[in-house]
Amino acid sequence: MTEFEPIRVINCKNCGFPMRQYNPNSIMMVCESCGTRTGDNQQPPAYKAEAPRNPLFKLHEQFRLNGDVWQVIGCQTYSGMVEEWDDEDNAWERTPWSYITWWVLNEAREIAWIVQDKSGYSWSRKVTITSSIPEGDTSYEVGHWSLTNTVGELSYYPLEDEQVTSYERDNWSMEILLDEQGNKREIEAFKSEPINPMELLEGFDKADIMARIKRAKLATKAAFASALILALSYGLLQFFEKTVMTIPPTQITQAMLNKPIPLGSLTLDNDSLMQFNVNSQIERRDGNFDGNIVIRDTDKAVVAEVPLSMWRESGRDSDGNWTEDQSGNSPKIMIPAGSNYQLSLVPETFTSWNTISLNGKIVRNASSLTPVVLGGLAAILLGLFMLRRRHKVIRRETGVTYA
Question: Do 332 and 274 form a contact (C-beta atoms < 8 A)?
């Protein structure tokens, strides 16, 4: 983009800095070097008038937006307080806030404004005033502003400490300029339209940054999609589970140690991954039980052994009384195809308790929730990390605090 040709160049009367005028309707210019105002006999302000630091907008910078080439010719910074009515407290809530108005000019020398605050950017266009000042209307946000910095060229004479009162609702605002005595000096109405930060990056030819943001967005979507797919896959796998045998309630005593307890028979047409879900009713005192579910074929040969362990422990430490227990097992084991397998429970260790009652079921093609939870959690954390990284890049490259 070729920089617009200035209409004229005026040397600052205080420091000699060449001030370029691009807008034929500008009636005041504020020196970028020392802050001296044209046509103003006063000394330059104590502060150095300069444009706020912004990764995109700088004085005389050009960009494309809404089909036009624009050039930044000035800016103003306002700070103050926003009042918003709280229906619950039945009172006005006050929030410190600030914003920047960037004056921009297109090739046709038409002026427009881009307003920037912590929430983002928006076009601001003048509209015809169609209503009176909505004083006392609680549906509006009321702003009380002071001009804190000015630089570049403007089409009006701002006061050194210009005061503005604004009423805003639904992207429509009425702004009232006040004079030194606080009286209404000028009233204007504006309509704002939010600007997508990606549109600004495109307009300022930040293709490499846009590519990074798009990659981060794609990675975020992929991560969240992976978590969703894992959850859906686990739900689908439940349809392939099948309970092939129920372990009936079985009560075990000390006298039954090392004696097989028949549980039933089982036939498998194919090699299958089996899960043995065994629960127990244990006594409310310390103790333990260990045993095996033994699977034998028709020749009485052991095909597989499934270990079981139930226990309860308690004690007291510096934090007080504590209790830990394990009253259920869900081991998995691959069992080859075969017919008329005989299953039995063989108790091996039984201490402190008088009895223990076991029951459960044997499930084929049981899916485990643990890898789904771990994988889903990892995918979600990755998605949140990429989302935060994307927002961080947008904030750094556009100056938007909340993105």
Answer: yes
| Whether residues 153 and 93 fall in one domain | yes
Q: Which residue has the tokens 């510096």?
A: 318
> What are the residues facing 76 on neighbouring strands?
101, 150
**Which neighbouring-strand residues pair with 141?**
168
Residue 44: the pLDDT is 58
CATH number at residue 266: 2.60.120
Residue 85 lies in a domain: yes
Q: Find residue 9's DSSP bridge partners.
A: 20
What is the torsional sign of CA 118, 123, 129, 131?
negative
Residue-range definition of the domain harbouring residue 284? 242-312+325-366
> What does pLDDT average to over the chain?
90
pLDDT tops 80 at residue 41: no
- Tell me which amino acid residue 173 is: S
Helix and strand element counts for the chain (H, E): 3, 22
Residue 212 inside a domain? The answer is no
User: Is residue 247 domain-shared with residue 304, that is, in the same domain?
Assistant: yes
Please give the radius of gyration of the chain, using alpha carbons only, rounded to the nearest integer.
38
Q: Is residue 234 scored above 90 in pLDDT?
A: no
Instruction: Compute the distance between CA of residue 177 and CA of residue 168 in angstroms, rounded to an integer.
Output: 15
CA–CA dist 382, 371 (Å, integer): 16
255 plus 153 within the same structural domain: no
Considering the domain architecture, whether residues 31 and 154 belong to the same structural domain is answered as yes
Q: In this structure, which amino acid lies at residue 310?
A: M
**What is the domain count for the chain?**
2
Predicted pLDDT of residue 62: 93
Say what the pLDDT of residue 260 is.
94
Whole-prediction pTM: 0.69
d(CA 340, CA 239): 25
